[in-house]
Design goal:
- The protein has about 180 residues and is α+β, with helices and mostly antiparallel strands.
- Among the domains are: about 35 residues; about 70 residues, no CATH class.
- Helices cover about 35% and strands about 10% of the residues.
- Strand 1 and strand 2 form a beta hairpin.
- It is elongated and about 85 Å long.
- The relative contact order is 0.09.
Length: about 180
Amino acid sequence: MSQEDKLPGAGGETPSGPEIEVVEREAPSQDHTRVPTSAGQRRSHSVKSHESRKANRAPAVSQLTPKDRFRAAVRKVIAVHRTSTIALRGRLGAEPGVDPRRASAFAAYGHIRQKCVIDVIDYSSIRCSAGRMTNRGFVEFLQNDRASAREPWVRVRWINIGGISWDVISALAMKYGK
C-alpha cells in the first residue's frame, strides 16, 4: 500500500473491522418510474416532476411588473369586500336574538301567525296549578300585571307553547326578556 492509502493509526496500519462495500448506481432516469428501494435507501425524485411543479406556480412578486402587482392588490381588496358584504347580508356576526320592540322585527316576523295552545303551570314542592290559553288570552294575561303576577307559594312557572306565532313570542319576550 502506498502512503496515501494508509489511514493514520498505530504504526500507520489500516484499521481493522468490518469491510465497507461501496455500491455505485446509475443516475435516475428522466421518466416518472420508480425503482423499489429498501428501507435504508433514499428514493430519488424525478427531475421532470419537480420542474413541472415549478412551472405551475405563480411568478414571484419580485418578477411582476408594478402594474401587475397593483392589479393583484386590487383583486384581493375586491375579494375581501365581496366576502364581507355577503356575510353582512345573512346577518352573520350580528347580535343574537330579535328585539320585538323594533318595527323591523314586526316587518320581518309579523306574518308568522298560528293558533297556539299555551299551558301555564305554576308549581312548588307542595302545590301545583295549571291553566290552558289561546293566543289572545295569553297575550292579555301577560299584559295584565295583576293577572300574571305569581302567587307567593309558586317557585316555578312553566310556560309551554304548542305552535309558533309572532304575537305570542313577542309578548313573552317583552314580559320576561331583559
